[in-house]
Amino acid sequence: MAAPPSLSCLLEEPRRLPPPPPPQDGMDTEAEWRDWAELPRDVLLAVLSRLDHIEILMGPDMVCSPWRRAGTDEPELWRRIDMRFHYADGFYLNSRKLLQMVRAAMRRSAGRCEAFWGGSYVTERILSLVGNAAPSLKSLRLIECRDIVDSAFKAVITKFPMLEELEISNCMHRFPETLEVIGDACPLLKRFRLSQRSFYSEIVDDSTAMAIASMSELRSLQLTANSLTNSGLELILNGCPLLESLDIRSCYHICMDNEMQAKCARIKTLRHPEDSMDDYDLSFNYTIPRPCWSAEPIEYSMGCQSPY
């Protein structure tokens, strides 16, 4: 398989397509040959809007000048930047190239970027770049990021006062200090997703719940494999009166007894700790293992006995 074009497509003016070949006898020239450079701009933008943004940076820029201008000079195309599920040090992408791509995408957004969704390659440098270039960001989704630490994230999150959606899924580090400031730094936050790779049965920790309880505008919350207890969940329910959707799958320290069911009665969409993970959209990378409880009967989750 030939390698994709290099990042020279971000810097060099592409060549125009060669002229059409002379028509042959019996050939319908219009049907056999199209000058794609003459594609109407609105149609071209509709086509580009259906591509991954890394695909735009690696391909259409090389077609011709009109295609390059459409991909470069239209900030609307870069208002929502989706660069998830791309990995550094792979077949043709490395961290340096991905940094260049994010920088190019932010430049093309002309300060109007409202959503940035990134994958494992996102570093503190990239996160800081987004923080400086997207003051009106409303959605930030980070998946499987290995290189972002709590102190760096805490400094950047304060730059997004307009944030309405935040996802931190399957990241290597935890962000206790960041979580503590989100409530004040992002007062408009409505959707929060904090997913973890594993549930640790030996840990009981309501600190995350205490931080989430300060996010008073939340409508949707997903906590996967978190170590919060019933006390922590009650803090969230009291601190987030507008909450409509709650997903606490694989949070096995939660006991959904009659009392807790009654407290959650106002939640329109509720996923229980024992509910199936089959429709979990990140499960292709791993399966959250069920906890290995002691062989002795133990009390957990505010009084529920382990079913294992």
Distance between the termini: 49 Å
Low-confidence sequence ranges: 1-17, 294-303
Number of strands: 10
Structural class, by secondary structure, is alpha/beta
The largest β sheet comes out as: 8 strands, parallel
What radius of gyration results from the CA coordinates? Answer: 24 Å
Number of helices: 11
- Oligomer status: single chain
Topology as a string of helices (H) and strands (E): HHHHEHEHEHEHEHEHEHEEE
According to CATH, the homologous superfamily of the domain at 79-271 is Ribonuclease Inhibitor
How would you describe this protein?
- With 308 residues, the chain is an alpha/beta fold.
- The chain has a domain at 79-271: Ribonuclease Inhibitor (Leucine-rich repeat, LRR (right-handed beta-alpha superhelix)).
- The protein is built from 11 helices and 10 strands.
- It has helices spanning 29-32, 41-48, 53-58, 65-72, 95-109, 124-133, 150-157, 176-185, 207-212, 230-239, 258-263, and strands spanning 80-83, 115-118, 139-143, 165-169, 191-195, 220-224, 245-247, 269-271, 299-300, 304-305.
- Strand 2, helix 6 and strand 3 form a beta-alpha-beta unit.
- Residues 33-81 form the F-box domain.
- It comes from Triticum aestivum.
- This is F-box domain-containing protein.
